Amino acid sequence: MAEKAAASRPAKKGLHGWKAFLVVFVSGTLAAFLVMGVIVGTLRLFVSTVTGGEEEEPPSAGGGAVSDQTGEPIDELEAGELDLCAKSIPTISSLSVERTDNDDDFEDTAESGEEGNRVVSDDCQWVLNPDFDSIERWDFSFSYNAIINASGEESPEDSASSDLQQRRGELEAGIQDVEVAEAGDYSDESYYVYGSPGDGETAYRVLVRTRGAVYEIQLTAKNGGEDLVPRQAFEHEVDKVVNRLDIDLGLWIPKY
Question: Domain residues of the chain, as ranges?
Answer without folding.
Answer: 17-56, 74-252
